[in-house]
Backbone:
């Protein structure tokens, strides 16, 4: 469900993590998070992003390597484009109506 | 900030309201919300969407008329497209690297 993805992105720390991972994979310890945020707190945010299907992570030794899911943001982009298309169709129809009036 | 918009859309009731309003304006009382949700509860969700800049509403007599903001979802669409572009550039660069190896 796309609202889970929106909820996951509705937090500034998680949004920043996604922005960083869009530039390339990174170990959880290297994620740019607010100063003084503990690694367990960071990993909790990573878990929320994983649950929403936006991020995948693999543990290699003591490091958890994080990357964007291959289809991350596809559902968000599709939902957004669909609503915008509906809305502009509606605005166009309204425009035609006003021209004809 | 786009994370406020994501947070506003991260709730199934509010997502459904946006989907309905993309098809055209509606009075708050006609918004398709879960059965038994009170009008004050609906108006609270509308307020969250207004605070995020996604919806505007005008009170006409006893009815609060709601509509999608003209630039609703523009920031969401732009953010999403930007991250996807960064990510596919990264994947392309990785592909070239692997081909050259």
Residues:
């Amino acid at each position: 469900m796309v609202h889970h993805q929106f909820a996951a992105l509705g937090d500034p720390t998680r949004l920043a993590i996604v922005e960083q991972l869009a530039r390339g994979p990174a170990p959880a310890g290297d994620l740019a998070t607010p100063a003084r945020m503990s690694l367990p707190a960071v990993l909790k945010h990573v878990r929320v992003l994983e649950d929403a299907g936006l991020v995948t992570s693999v543990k290699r030794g003591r490091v958890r390597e994080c990357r964007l899911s291959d289809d991350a943001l596809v559902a968000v982009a599709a939902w957004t484009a669909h609503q915008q298309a509906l809305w502009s169709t509606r605005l166009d129809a309204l425009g035609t109506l006003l021209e004809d009036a």
Notes: The beta strands of chain A are 26-27, 55-60, 63-68. Chain A has one domain: 2-100.
